[in-house]
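Posting this for the archive.
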Amino acid sequence: MGYVMTTALTGDMSIVTSDGTTLTDSTDLGLAWKWAENEHGAAWKDMPYRERVVSVSDALAALRTAYANA
């Protein structure tokens, strides 16, 4: 299993997505949710909630791994 972190990251956070959009939030979970939504684009609204949660989980894991390796 990859990096596991149970404590939320908080503060002014931002990422620049693959399409050049800058996303910001004050929590890692909020930022992960925005990132996942951005990556799926228009299809996001039609995705089952379960699939959205999996996508957000993957984004959150990537953010926390990047933070841990920074």
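The radius of gyration is 12 Å. Residues 18 and 52 are 19 Å apart (CA to CA).
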